[in-house]
Write a structure and sequence with these properties.
Layout lengths: L1 H16 L3 H13 L3 H10 L4 H14 L4 H14 L2 H14 L4 H10 L3 H14 L4 H9 L5
Length: 147
């Protein structure tokens, strides 16, 4: 498993170093051959902030496991960080149909909300489920709201 992950990481690194089509096609070809979602998750985590790698990796994970709420939310966050809110909302909607009360679904929903009152409501809902949730606690502090 680690050899395959190392090879994927090497291809991903080459993809990031150039805009040439060759490394991109090599990475896409390698991803299409992987069926082990643990390896794909490892690659997605390692290159989370690099959409040239994380987007096709999450696409492959979701091709293999379309009902994976966590991967869908993480993919939504990648789009959110890219400023692609419409794509992030599409992932949120898919995740919400799978598990609307999942903590990460609620977190992405709060992140995408433009309404401060809705953000507060969602972060409080998260804290009802997980009173120590650091993201919700931190965001409520940022919004200057007592929990």
């Amino acid at each position: 498993m680690s050899d395959t992950l190392s090879q994927l990481e090497e291809l991903a690194q080459r993809r990031l170093e150039t805009n040439e089509p060759g490394p991109e096609q090599e990475l896409l070809g390698a991803l299409s051959q992987i069926t082990d979602t643990a390896q794909l998750r490892g690659l997605a985590e390692r290159f989370y902030a690099d959409p040239e790698v994380s987007v096709p990796t999450f696409e492959r994970i979701l091709q293999l496991c379309p009902g994976d709420v966590t991967a869908r939310v993480q993919f939504g966050f990648v789009y959110f960080l890219m400023g692609e809110d419409e794509a992030a909302v599409r992932q949120l909607e898919e995740a919400r149909t799978l598990d609307p009360e999942h903590l990460q679904v609620l977190t992405l929903e709060a992140a995408l909300s433009g309404d401060p009152a809705e953000k507060i409501r969602l972060y409080r809902r998260i804290l009802q489920k997980d009173p120590r949730n650091e993201v919700a606690l931190g965001k409520l502090r940022e919004l200057d709201v007592s929990q």
